[in-house]
Amino acid sequence: MTTSTSQLTTLFIVVALVCAFVPAFSVEEGEAKTLWDTCLLKITPKCALDIIGVVFGNGTITDACCHDLVEEGKVCHDTLIKYISDRPHLVANETQYLKKRDDLWIHCVSVTKTA
């Protein structure tokens, strides 16, 4: 459990640093920062870590985080995951990450509808 948490924390730190210093796909640098700042205001750091863990690893997400994710909105979710998955060291598995992103969205929408 500690190794898994440590790996997830390391992954998040690496992804955050890469995203902070490398411009994104078709989103201009200033636009990416605005999107990043706007979208991440709607979600807790714990939920952000859980989302990254689900999409880029084998993590799990709570119903509460699903509610936060749906409140954040699909555009924010899609854009931020695409932004991260476009990094040079992740792009080889981008298709897999985007599928996991979409699967997570569908799961979280279904969770919020049943609550």
UniProtKB/TrEMBL annotation:
Residue span(s) of domain Prolamin-like? 38-109
> What keyword terms does UniProt attach to this protein?
Signal
Annotated signal peptide: 1-20
Does the record carry Ribonucleoprotein as a key word?
no
PANTHER family in the record, alphabetically?
BIFUNCTIONAL INHIBITOR/LIPID-TRANSFER PROTEIN/SEED STORAGE 2S ALBUMIN SUPERFAMILY PROTEIN-RELATED (PTHR31951), BIFUNCTIONAL INHIBITOR_LIPID-TRANSFER PROTEIN_SEED STORAGE 2S ALBUMIN SUPERFAMILY PROTEIN-RELATED (PTHR31951:SF27)
Name of this chain's protein? Prolamin-like domain-containing protein
